[in-house]
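Narrative summary of target 7.
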Amino acid sequence: MTTRKSLDLLLGEALEDLQAAAGAARAIPDFDFKPVLRAVGAATVGIWDVRKTLHDAEPSLEPEFVGLHESDPELCDRLFDELDTAAQAEARRDTSEAKRIYEGLLSASPIGFFKIQAQAGLYRLAQQSLEGGGVV
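Modeled conformation, tokenized:
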């Protein structure tokens, strides 16, 4: 059965895919990525509008970073910027830079959301290393 929670999780995954698409677009050489970023931005806002409706109806679904953004918006914005920078480094295959950023996020984040994102990034880098025979 579909619930508000399952819909919210799907929308959260869609947001992650949009972030990855924006990073990938930036990494394409000689490519005008600005139209892609505008489209991703519009889609992101639309998804957050739907999620806000879900969270208003069921406050327990609200992600913990929303509370962090309300209490310390500069820190939350900085952590999101770091995630974006790490995703860009990952898209460029700059594994050492991505690893450095993800490890910094693990130690700097006061909440689990950013820690989980960093752990997922480190896991992806490790898997790429195993597949490519390199060392992360």
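The mean pLDDT is 90.
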